[in-house]
Each structure stands twice: as C-alpha cells, then as structure tokens.
Amino acid sequence: MITNLCTLISEDFEKLKENYPSVITVGTFDGIHLGHRQLIKKVIQISSEENLKSIVLTFDPHPRSVLENNKNISLLNTHQEKENILIPLGLDFLVKKKFTIEFSKMSSVNFVKNILIHRLNLKHLVIGHDHHFGRNRTANITQLIEYSKLYNFKVTQVDAFKLNGISVSSTKIRNLIKDGNIDQANRFLGYNMFLSGTVVAGKGRGKKMGFPTANILLEKLKIKPGNGVYLISSKYAGIKIYGMMNIGNNPTFDDKSPSIEVHFFDFDQKIYDENIQMQIITRIRNEIKFSGSDELSNQLIEDKKKCIEFISRNKKSP
User: Fold this and answer.
1) Mean pLDDT, to the nearest integer, of 50-77?
2) Which of these, 59, 140, 123, lies nearest to 95 by C-alpha position?
3) Cα gap 52→263, rounded to integer Å
4) Cα first-last separation, the chain
5) Which value, to the nearest 10 degrees, does the dihedral of the CA atoms of residues 143, 144, 147, 153 take?
6) Could you read off the pLDDT of 94-142 as tens digits, one per residue?
7) CA–CA separation, 236 vs 214, rounded Å?
8) In the chain, what are the domains?
C-alpha cells in the first residue's frame, strides 16, 4: 500500500531546482476518476522502472473557468480538494501551474520546451487517449511524437479506461451528477462524490416538522447533483454520521431560490458557521411538490426509513 505523500510545488518550481529527470503526466484532472488514476499508476510504474521522479502537472484555476470567465462552470473538485486527493497517491511531486489568458496562448512546442523540458527535466511523458494541449488545444499525439524526437524524451499513450464497456471521463461524470445518477457517477469516480460547504441559518421549517436541517452554502463553481433527496454521510468530531440531503427549490413552499439542506440522523450539535464535507451515497427520490407541511413530513419519515434500510443492507461486516 502506498503511504508516502508527494511534495506540492507551486508556480515558482523552486523545490525542483535540483532538476530531477522526470516522468510527467499533464492535465486538469477534475474528479481524479478511475481514468486519471490509471494514468497516475502508469507514471509511478515508469518512475520505478526508469529511475525517474514522478510528477503530475496540473493547473489552477481550471482552464475553463479562465477561458469562459466562470460562465456555466461546474467542477467535480475545487483545487484544494484535488490536491487533497492527489497528494497521498504515491507521486514524488504535484506541480501546480497558474493558468492565465497569457499562458493559454503559449504554443505547444514552447510548452514542451520551456515548461516540461527546461523547468521539469522531462524524460518520459504519459498522456491519455484524447490528450490535446498548447494554444487552442491544437496539438495531439502526432505533434508530441515529433517533439519527443526533437528533445529526446519518450511518450506513452494510455488507452481510455472503461468500466463495463463505457469509457470514463470527467464530462460524463458531471452529466451523471447533474442528472442525479449518483450511483453511476460514484462508480466512475472510484469513490463517493462529496460536497463541502459552510453551515448557515435557514428558515427553520424542518425543525418544526421534527427534521431539523443544516443549510449548506457550497463553494463557488462546485457541481451540485440534480434536485432530489440523497443519502449522505459525514464526520463530526471524528465520528461518522449519516443523514439525508435535499437539493432543490422547496416547491411545497413556493421558494424560488435553490437550497441544500441536510438532516443528520441522531445528531443534535450546533454547527452553524462550521465547514462540513458530505459524501453522497445514493439518490432516494426526486424533488416533489406536496400539498403542505403535513404531507411533506410524512414523506420525510418514509425517506428516512429508506435511508436506514440502505445503510443496514450495505453495512460492511467487521
């Protein structure tokens, strides 16, 4: 089992001044899904076989958030979440390059020469099956092979990772999450999708019905599942707790603004202004407009029963 933590390198690359010869993979790695992990495993394998330092080069902010000016951007991970997932995977270095409009105009050959070769001492590059890079993402494997001959490095292209015959990609996972298909999204990710946010005061309706809720303010650009009710888990003071989360507009009360509300089971702590992370385990039902609070309360009782039954069915043996 890999336990070593990699070194995080920011823009200045100062900690790489020793100029270690390296094997590198490059990308945004949104979600760090099973396909990404296949690439990273290949990098670590080559690192061991060829005595090279293993590097993931990624970008912050996400290129789309810069090029599209944050319009309609929904990300599987914030950059901090991405770092938290990548750092324990057994790499030597995680290199974070600031993505700017100016950087986006760099030609593919200059990116290879000035960043990968001169700054990171590239000896072997590992890329995915559909990798494009450079200005307007116009360069691909054909150009890379030409550059590899010019600058004396190897290129390994890894086939698409498929699960049950379906290739895994960040775009597919985002679409699954938006559609509320959390089960399939989690399978493609290789872990339970999670949300992080700050607990803020709500309108207190849940408490009056016997289901007090924590209202969650998400970080900007973080993707949200489609409207509905979900089983979630979290940790508080080191203890795992379960609950159910509603995402939507509260149509029973004709609310217009979307909200995220979580009712934790057997939990009565005051957690306003605290930051919590929730794993989304499965979808319970769609969002429904009820005739009033009594009908909604009865449905919440049924939702909780379904959640408890799911937890019981899927509890791992000691």
Assistant:
1) 89
2) 59
3) 49
4) 21
5) -170
6) 999 999 999 999 999 999 999 999 999 999 999 998 888 877 777 888 9
7) 13
8) 20-163 (3.40.50.620), 193-313 (2.40.30.30)
